[in-house]
Structure formats: C-alpha cells, structure tokens
Amino acid sequence: MCGTCGAKITKHRVLEHINSTDSMQANFTEIKTDFSKSYGTILLSKDGRTKICYEHPRKITIIKNNGIILHYDHELDELSQFKNKDNLLESLLSNKLNADSEITCQDQNCVVTITDGSERSIAITLISTEKDELEVKSINIIDGDLQSIMEFKNLKRNIKLNPNMFYFERDHNKLFDY
C-alpha cells in the first residue's frame, strides 16, 4: 500500500478518482501477448455497460451489458451473441475500491490492481498530469496466459451517456438495444 504516491499522488486521491468516475471514453491502442496491435475506441460505464469499437486491424464492435456480449464483425456483416462470464473490465468502474485495494506507486505513476481470486487481474495505471490532475493512462488485463494492454489517449471521464451508444444499427434498423 502506498500512503503517499510520489510527490503529488496520494492513495486517497487515487481511490477518490476511480470511485468518482461514472463513465469513461477514450481512444486506445491495444497490445496483446503475441505483440499484435489493434486500435479503436472504448466506452465504460459504472452501470456495467461497455462498448469497444475496433477500427484496426479489423472493424469489430463489441457491446457488453446485462450478462450478454454482442460481437459484430462489420466486414463479414456477422453478429454473434454470447452469455457474459464475469468480466473484470466491465466491473472496473462498478466495483468500489477501498483502503485495502492494492495500490503501488513510483514517481508520478500509481498502479491499482484488481483481482478476482483466480488467474485473472486488471491493473489500472494512473499518472499525475501537469495540471496536478489524475488521468488513467492504461489498463493491463491478465486472464491466465493471455495478456492485453490498452493504452489510452483523449480520455474523457464522467461524460453523459446516450442510450443509442449501446446498440447496433444495420441498414437503419436497430439490431440490439439495452
């Protein structure tokens, strides 16, 4: 546990920052275990809704909510639906972190690690900006032997969410809505 993280970041500030985040939207670059890269946008909401839009190497949209994962491959025009197992990414904002949360800091960076008691974990890296504000810089997801790091740019917190952000549309017909 860190108490005071570097000169400007305290454990209290880190917990307050994450727990006060209701939603998050960012552009990302994702690097996987095999060193492959993809990029796109991600939208996370405290109520558990998640939308990931991959633009490269293949245009894919993933929406997670209410125990369902929808996977739409734009090139194949193919929609798949799965039941959602517990997902650490989806629960990132919905879980309240507390004083017992694992937080380690070095210089102007802090890492918060969330585990589910198995081989799965998620580590959130926060940095202190020039304006002395905290910013989520990346998320490292580990699920057994698989690892994925999402590095964020243009991150916006606590944005107003439009329900239309969480459905697919094909030929102006709504395919799925929460």
UniProtKB/TrEMBL annotation:
Highest taxon of source: Bacteria
Keywords, alphabetical: Lipoprotein, Signal
Keyword Lipoprotein in annotation: yes
Transmembrane intervals: none
InterPro entries assigned to the protein according to its UniProt record, in alphabetical order: LolA/LolB/LppX, OM_lipoprot_carrier_LolA-like
Protein name, per record: Outer-membrane lipoprotein carrier protein
Organism in which the protein naturally occurs: Candidatus Cyrtobacter comes
Upper classification of the organism: Bacteria, Pseudomonadati, Pseudomonadota, Alphaproteobacteria, Rickettsiales
